[in-house]
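Notes from hallway chat w/ T.B., transcribed later so I don't forget. T.B. wanted the structure written out for a chain they're using in a teaching module, and asked if we could keep both sequence and structure tokens in one place. Agreed to drop them here.
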Amino acid sequence: MLVIPFTFLTKRLPYCRDNIIPHTYCDHMSVAKISCGNVQVNAIYGLMVALLIGDFDILCITVSYTIILWTVVSLSSADARQKAFSTCTAHICAIVITYVPGFFTFFTHRFGGHTIPPHIHIIMVNLYLLMPPTMNPIVYGVKTKQIRDSVIRFLLKGKETLT
């Protein structure tokens, strides 16, 4: 529901220059910036939505991990605590992989202006789009013993065929 107004905010803008976005990713502010109109409303609404969603996500994640950690600390088995902490570490890695490039991209569009070189912004946008779906299987797969053992066997087998 929060994203629907972006369409109307972008549609109301006059476009009088090239309609080429210098990115590999077409987001709201990229489209708004190629207009020759005032994009301040677009930037403010986008900032409010991102902060609202980001703050809500961080609040939910913090509450969830507080409850999880409280429960994990009360476990009697050290092995169970270790396994739970290990799983939480994988989750936190996945969260960081998703949010850091996303927030960087979002804030540089609004505040980076001309201080961030375009090629850095494009690289970060691509990382934001490609890193989470690429890294999630790796982050969670390494935690699974069968997958880890299969990868090690595969790598060792490949090493043997090279020699």
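Follow-up for T.B.: The helical segments are 4-11, 28-33, 40-73, 78-112, 118-141, 145-162. Might be a good example for the class.
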